[in-house]
Design goal:
It is a single chain. This protein is of the alpha+beta class. The protein contains 15 helices and 14 strands. It folds into three domains: about 100 residues, 2-Layer Sandwich (Beta-Lactamase); about 120 residues, PAS domain (Beta-Lactamase, 2-Layer Sandwich), CATH 3.30.450; about 120 residues, P-loop containing nucleotide triphosphate hydrolases (Rossmann fold), CATH 3.40.50.300. The strands form four sheets. A five-stranded antiparallel beta sheet has the order 2-1-5-4-3. Strands 7-6-10-9-8 form a five-stranded antiparallel beta sheet, with helices on both faces. A hairpin with a 2-residue loop joins β9 and β10. The relative contact order is 0.05.
Length: about 375
C-alpha cells in the first residue's frame, strides 16, 4: 500500500488520532483530531498534547512500554476515552499513537436512559399507591406492568407477574375470556363486573375498565383498571337486608297500646358491635326468667327499650306493662302510687289500686329508681 493510500486511511478515520513523542510533543494528527482541537495542518508543530487536553498529568501514560486503554479525558463539554499505543520501529525515541474516541453522544444517551429509568420507577411508585388495580399488556399478551393493588386483589406478587405472558400466569385463561385481548381485538373500551374466588377461597367482586393502547395510529397493547367493590357490595346487601327487615316489621301487627302499652321488641334494637350483641343476648336470657332485672345506663341510652323488649320476649307479654318515672313524683305520693290507697288512710283518700297491683302478672318498670329517697327502701317496702 502506498504512502498516499495510508494517509487517506489516516484522515478518513472517525476516531481522533495523534502521534506524539515521549515528551508529549505532537508530531502528527489526522483530520478528525484537527477538528477536535480546532487546528490547521501547520498549527500543531511544537504543541504539547497535555496542553491540548488541558491535563498535565496525561504525560504519565507516555512512560509505559505497553498499551494503556480506557483513559477518561474531558475537553470542554466533550467526554472522550483515550488509548495510548507505543510505536516501536527501531527509532531513536519511542513514539506513541493516541486514539481519542468521542463518547459525548454515548454518555448523553446513557444519562438520558438513566433519567428515563428513574422516571419509570417514579411512575411505578405512583401507580403502586393507587387504590385501583392496574395491569398493562403488549400486543403479544406479555404483562408490562402490574401494580401493588392488582397483586392484592389476585393474591400475587407483582414482581412474579411482570414480564410473563398472561397465559403462563393464568393457565386457565383463554383468548375468549380475556377482556384485555378482547379490548385489543375490538379496539374499544370494555366495562365489566365479575365475582371471582381467590386461591384461598375468598370471593372478590370487581369493576373493570379495559381499553386498547395506541401510540399514534399503532396499537401497542391494552390496559385494565380494576376496582375492588367487595366491601361496597357487602354493605349494599346489608342495607338491603335491613330494609327488608324493616318492611317485614312494618307489615307485622304491633300490640295495641291498650293491651300492654309497649311498642319495642329486641328486633327493634339495631347494633353492629359484639358488646351490644352480648348485652341483647343477656337481656333475652333475663326475659325467660321471673327474676327482678336491674337495667343500668345513662339517661337516653335506651333502658326502657330494653325493658319493653324483655317484657315482650317473656311469658308475661300478654299481661300489662306499666312504666313509672320515680323522679317525677314527690316521695310522699310515691308510696301511695306504688302500693295503692284506701279510704281513711289520709284526708281525701280514696280506694285506688297501686302500680304493683295493676301490673300483677305483668311487668312494672321503675325508671330513675336512684332518685327515690331512702325511706321506702329502708322500710323494706321494695324488697
Amino acid at each position: 500500500m502506498t504512502v498516499i493510500a495510508l494517509n487517506d486511511v489516516w484522515n478518513a478515520c472517525f476516531d481522533n488520532m495523534v502521534i506524539v513523542d515521549q515528551d508529549g510533543s505532537v508530531l502528527d494528527l489526522n483530520r478528525s483530531a484537527m477538528r477536535l482541537f480546532s487546528l490547521g495542518p501547520g498549527d500543531f508543530a511544537g504543541v504539547s498534547l497535555c496542553e491540548l487536553l488541558g491535563d498535565k498529568s496525561f504525560g504519565r501514560y507516555l512512560k509505559a512500554d505497553k498499551e494503556t486503554t480506557g483513559i477518561s479525558v474531558c475537553i470542554g463539554t466533550q467526554e472522550l476515552i483515550a488509548n495510548v499505543v507505543p510505536l516501536s520501529r527501531n527509532l531513536e525515541q519511542t513514539r506513541y499513537l493516541i486514539i481519542l474516541k468521542n463518547m459525548t453522544q454515548q454518555q448523553q444517551l446513557k444519562y438520558q436512559l438513566q433519567a428515563m429509568n428513574e422516571t419509570k420507577l417514579l411512575y411505578d411508585a405512583v401507580l403502586d399507591e393507587l387504590e385501583e388495580g392496574v395491569c398493562v399488556v403488549n400486543t403479544e399478551g406479555r404483562i408490562l406492568f402490574y401494580n401493588r393493588k392488582m397483586g392484592e386483589i389476585d393474591l400475587r406478587e407483582p414482581a412474579s407477574v411482570r414480564g410473563r405472558r398472561m397465559f403462563d400466569v393464568w393457565p386457565a385463561l383463554d383468548e375468549q375470556a380475556s377482556t384485555l385481548l378482547a379490548a385489543m381485538k375490538l379496539s374499544k373500551t370494555l366495562h365489566h363486573r365479575e365475582t371471582h374466588f381467590t386461591p384461598n377461597g375468598r370471593a372478590v367482586t370487581t369493576l373493570s375498565r379495559t381499553a386498547p393502547l395506541f401510540v399514534g395510529e399503532q396499537k401497542r397493547g391494552a390496559i385494565q383498571v380494576l376496582r375492588d367493590i367487595t366491601e361496597q357490595k357487602q354493605l349494599a346487601e346489608s342495607i338491603q337486608q335491613l330494609r327488608k327487615a324493616d318492611e317485614t316489621k312494618a307489615a307485622s301487627p304491633r300490640p295495641l297500646p291498650g293491651q300492654n302499652q309497649t311498642r319495642f321488641r329486641f328486633t327493634d334494637i339495631v347494633y353492629v358491635s359484639r358488646e351490644m350483641g352480648q348485652t341483647v343476648e343477656q337481656a333475652r336470657r333475663a326475659a325467660r326468667s321471673s327474676s327482678t332485672v336491674l337495667i343500668i345506663g345513662e339517661t337516653g341510652t335506651g333502658k326502657e327499650l330494653f325493658a319493653q323488649s324483655i317484657h315482650n320476649e317473656s311469658p308475661r307479654q300478654s299481661a300489662p306493662f306499666i312504666a313509672q318515672n320515680c323522679a317525677a313524683l314527690p316521695e310522699g305520693l310515691l308510696e301511695g302510687l306504688l302500693f295503692g290507697t284506701a279510704p281513711g288512710s289520709f284526708t281525701g283518700a280514696v280506694d285506688r289500686p297501686g302500680l304493683f297491683e295493676q301490673a300483677n302478672g305483668g311487668t312494672l318498670l321503675l325508671d330513675e329508681l336512684n332518685a327515690m329517697g331512702p325511706t321506702l327502701c329502708m322500710a323494706g317496702r321494695l324488697t
